[in-house]
Amino acid sequence: MLPLLLIEPLVRAALVEDLGRAGDITTAAVVPQHIQAEAILVARQPGTICGLDLAATAFHLVDPGLRFSPSLRDSARVEAGDVIARIGGPARGILTGERVALNFLGHLSGIATATRGIADKIAHTNCRVTCTRKTTPGLRAVEKYAVRCGGGANHRFGLDDAILIKDNHIAIAGGLRAALVRARAHAGHLVKIEVEVDALSQLEEAVSIGVDAVLLDNMTPAEVFEAVRIVAGRAITEASGGITLQTAQDFAETGVDLISVGWITHSAFTLDIGLDI
Amino acid sequence: MLPLLLIEPLVRAALVEDLGRAGDITTAAVVPQHIQAEAILVARQPGTICGLDLAATAFHLVDPGLRFSPSLRDSARVEAGDVIARIGGPARGILTGERVALNFLGHLSGIATATRGIADKIAHTNCRVTCTRKTTPGLRAVEKYAVRCGGGANHRFGLDDAILIKDNHIAIAGGLRAALVRARAHAGHLVKIEVEVDALSQLEEAVSIGVDAVLLDNMTPAEVFEAVRIVAGRAITEASGGITLQTAQDFAETGVDLISVGWITHSAFTLDIGLDI
Amino acid sequence: MLPLLLIEPLVRAALVEDLGRAGDITTAAVVPQHIQAEAILVARQPGTICGLDLAATAFHLVDPGLRFSPSLRDSARVEAGDVIARIGGPARGILTGERVALNFLGHLSGIATATRGIADKIAHTNCRVTCTRKTTPGLRAVEKYAVRCGGGANHRFGLDDAILIKDNHIAIAGGLRAALVRARAHAGHLVKIEVEVDALSQLEEAVSIGVDAVLLDNMTPAEVFEAVRIVAGRAITEASGGITLQTAQDFAETGVDLISVGWITHSAFTLDIGLDI
Amino acid sequence: MLPLLLIEPLVRAALVEDLGRAGDITTAAVVPQHIQAEAILVARQPGTICGLDLAATAFHLVDPGLRFSPSLRDSARVEAGDVIARIGGPARGILTGERVALNFLGHLSGIATATRGIADKIAHTNCRVTCTRKTTPGLRAVEKYAVRCGGGANHRFGLDDAILIKDNHIAIAGGLRAALVRARAHAGHLVKIEVEVDALSQLEEAVSIGVDAVLLDNMTPAEVFEAVRIVAGRAITEASGGITLQTAQDFAETGVDLISVGWITHSAFTLDIGLDI
Amino acid sequence: MLPLLLIEPLVRAALVEDLGRAGDITTAAVVPQHIQAEAILVARQPGTICGLDLAATAFHLVDPGLRFSPSLRDSARVEAGDVIARIGGPARGILTGERVALNFLGHLSGIATATRGIADKIAHTNCRVTCTRKTTPGLRAVEKYAVRCGGGANHRFGLDDAILIKDNHIAIAGGLRAALVRARAHAGHLVKIEVEVDALSQLEEAVSIGVDAVLLDNMTPAEVFEAVRIVAGRAITEASGGITLQTAQDFAETGVDLISVGWITHSAFTLDIGLDI
Amino acid sequence: MLPLLLIEPLVRAALVEDLGRAGDITTAAVVPQHIQAEAILVARQPGTICGLDLAATAFHLVDPGLRFSPSLRDSARVEAGDVIARIGGPARGILTGERVALNFLGHLSGIATATRGIADKIAHTNCRVTCTRKTTPGLRAVEKYAVRCGGGANHRFGLDDAILIKDNHIAIAGGLRAALVRARAHAGHLVKIEVEVDALSQLEEAVSIGVDAVLLDNMTPAEVFEAVRIVAGRAITEASGGITLQTAQDFAETGVDLISVGWITHSAFTLDIGLDI
Question: What is the ipTM for the molecules in this complex?
């Protein structure tokens, strides 16, 4: 559950974006103010739900008189037809808040569902699926939360909470050793260091200098298997690059600790959720 | 081209989201301040580009000393391997701005590419593809712009710039006629009115009362064809509901003016674009 | 009624502007904290009220313990001496919130009253009075709302919700036809197009190319009458330019659909409203 | 001259209010990007100019490539037909920025002109005209500046920069003496204290307790004359309440130090200024 | 007591600064959601308390379900071990809000305590201790409030609420007389003028031209005594420059009205306050 | 060096706080607009400088025409009398920006100097001094940067970038083991876990379960020495609680990796820096 202090500004901004300068002119014109209504949020396809607090906040900000009663909790799996929440109160508020609530709920549930898809494929291993910084601008905190709701683990939240030395850093710094030595000199005692390794030949050097994690980039499952053997528990191992729902299992069974997948945040389908009155 | 006044706050917020409180600690530790670099943005798959101004703004905000030189313009089609832009200047700035620039560029190019895909399928007709309000919270203006770059047309930007009477409005208002009469009484002279029609039986009534457009929801191409015949040019016709890349042509060939597709904004894949130094 | 999401930030900003860094130092010094008071808002001159929600929000933000009970609703006409609302609770809050509440209420009621003045003059016709974009920076949404409370209709809310081609656009575009053709090619299907016509000779061309509305600028009532005859219902007609409370009726009786008046928003007198304890 | 740090956010917000989500769709559709233009801002009626920096900032924010060359400075008097400034550069930017620039310039020049009108009437006395806190929400700083440009003096900028004890404060505090004693105990050494006096009988008490200024509310010129005699230089004297352009001179000639007038900020007419290309 | 409108944004920003993008990950991981707790805020050293409203707001914003019950009021003196407030409710909220609440409370109580230290030393005189503009960026309003809670008086809140002519102004303006004449011509009737005097020889000139206050900068107590004699009640006198807890009494006993001390805001120790569960 | 994207909003807000609504009324009244000046920032006492970019930004935001030329870089040590930077350009801008520039520079240099004091005392050991989350609300990022400039290391930047299990967490979670097990299950692979240990008896358990760091709270140097021996390199060791400039060396010589000190951020004296024209 994310703190309301972080999600309220997002929802408020989304509502203001939708209301524009004149507000919901259709509802104002067509729906009398006194009419009450009951509505349900219904899944139109199977998936994993995420974003109930954001949907609740959307309706609450539009009209504090609306009651939002979730039927389940974030992370729950649903089938097509399952009721996700009930909303009751002034009809105008339900109609005005509907789109923003659904936009958040569908987007985040889509991410949770995509993550869940991979997590299920690798559930028999000790490997976990993790996200990247390839998130939608402005929505990183909630998208990372959706990954957790789908059974995934979180990678860095930004450029500032861990050191991740990539190929470009190494090239510019003048080699892996130079980069790592500088990183270790600068890192605070609670900051972990991960280094990207594109070839098995770099791996022993990286681990022997001392890193918290190695990012095995664009390797085959066989190469990852070999890399895990070389590392031998001296660092966390993460496989990355082009991993799909189909190949996830092969990677996970190599014994690697994590597989990281960008598309669960940047290219997940929206989960189809409807509002019925 | 969107005004800088609208995109600069988005890019700034995305950078602050990524920088967090401590900034890019990897680059600060590993890359000496004086090093200059040249980088290129390269398409890794075919598509339609959108978001160059946002990428340029990202690098400019990180370091005004960076030069960003696009090789093409928004709306351009690219093949895998095509250079999209060149960035030159302090290496630190390139590395720090990379992810935010790519997140915008990939996301918006993905929308443009998805839209282009449909637009190409229906190019032989007078029908156009249009978007919906199912956009990512906070990014509506730029996503709508991406739709235009992909050859699509824009639907409403929000709840306030046109009246769109949907099934729920009609139900609550007590029927189509009541809803339309109220809408016409309230609408300013520059506000158009569109009404959702779920069955052909409602269509003649709607058009005879007078509307600017009719939304033909969840109809088959055959039903849409019949609807277009009934409307007979008295209103703009828009088909909506479950239209895919495969079925777009069938709908377009009915003579309908517009097909609206939610997934080009809410579920488009990110276009794969890389930064090479 | 405007959504609270849109008016709350305005009222909050106005209060912070008035409170400065040290708050209401007079009240803090002079009025003991425990004192309760009852106050009334009273019209000191006849007019049309607008802004009750903003006044209520001002007192509520200063002290949630204050009760604000309006005696009437926005759009109501008042005579001098009429009670508009009652406020009860801690005296400090009433005194601190008074000025901001009155500044909004007086300003918006002034606009509503000015609009009402014209609307009454033309009530026997089918013509309506409409506003312009000549609004006070920052207050467009609420000023447009005040126009509606005064019986007027709203023109564009901004540069983005309709196309209005003015003389300068036509000159730069190379003529009326060129401008209109470009506009029709770019406009979304829910965007209306209005074109300014300074001479009757341009009118037939404009209407025959196809526009939603024509802006008849700086014409005499006789010219407007002739223009309405030429248009013959093929477009909405709007007369504009130097229309006063005295000449409004002459214009309205030409059969024109709308008269637009900038001064109802940019030069309306504030309605005199007082707070009596 | 106001600091750019204070006016830039105002202008930026006004532009964003006008641009909405889609920007200036008329100009984008109708005016080719490469066209350059020259425009002039011209006074359409006589008055006193105020707001050139805000107008310049509006054009600069829309397009930094625009050149804004004022022909005169804030506080200058103009006749109908006088050129106020020249703007050159991309035609699109001129058309997009025009309305916001004119809205600020017209509104503030209107206030300056109204103030100048009174200032001229009382120029032969030592009396000055001053404003109140009856300003447009959000624009207090610039409206107070406009008053100075019109030859007026500024009253309090907010609730926090001086103590002004009004009738309601006195009533609640239990009398003038009690209120003044409390105020003097709380006021910092750089905070002045002014007290409203509704009857001459209170005046001697107020002055003898010690105040920096007395606000003579709703008195006739004869009463003000008598009040000035009683005060005899022991405090600054300010007349207030219903003072008009016609009666200003009578009040000023009583020897009072200041006359305060709310309508120069809350009910001034906009000065008519046009932009010709 | 400061208005909630001014302190809420400060507390909200501080919480968001502490929560970052992922929130309180320790508490989320370690503390079950249903656990309730009771906590007390306890002084660990003697001092004067300031900031209870900010602490209450911090806990309230983290979880509106938390109860915050202060045992005393701002300005109260405490001994080590005294309970300042009790907080009850969900354990998670207490742990998440603790640091921000304590950071405000400790910082402001430190300022109040430092001020109180001087105020006590000079309590037998008519002299008061006052603060400067040497405050922590962003916290001026609350730090000035802390000075009041410690028995001090407030100097200017900013560059805009009084005129304070310093040595650099005099040098640039071409002398004391020139500076003062210009200042008096520009100052509104509720704006006081204070002038810095570095040598007794300037003092008579300043007072005879007419100022509200003189700032006696970097003088010895003997010089201040002489200055007070020269001024002879014609202006408020303020001693400034290097005044310590040890020398405060010597200055105060000269008869000077105020001693201003920068370090009570910029270099006060934080008061040690703990939260015990 | 911190990114301008993070410091510019801080400096802008501080300037707006100081300018208030009317700006620098002293300078506007007293200093003619055309006067140019040269000024120097001079250290009035020995110390370590931090904040030059913030000072430069302050002057730049007040007037982009000002030139700011630092004579040294952040982290440099200065003696009393050393010139820190030169500022040239319009005199008004120098006077208006002075206080905000000095407030940042003095505050951050004070923190750097305090940190440097401890860092020098322990320079002969492998121990480093680190900060806490006891920072001034709103200034955490820059205060943490000042600690680095003083030769210190940074602890957590917020609640979200590392797990730190304190005594209250352990008590509520039902013991050290329960807390640690939960923490390890939730932590992302780049998140470190530190646990507070108040007694040596808990230490072996903590280390054997597996933690990245142990916080040895309120122990004597002798106890810390013993703790370091027990940990034997299996975790990072941090001593905390009541460490002063006098006792820092004793703690550092125990072999502990870090000593954390709250007062270097929350109670450091401001470094005395002056601006001479």
Answer: 0.95
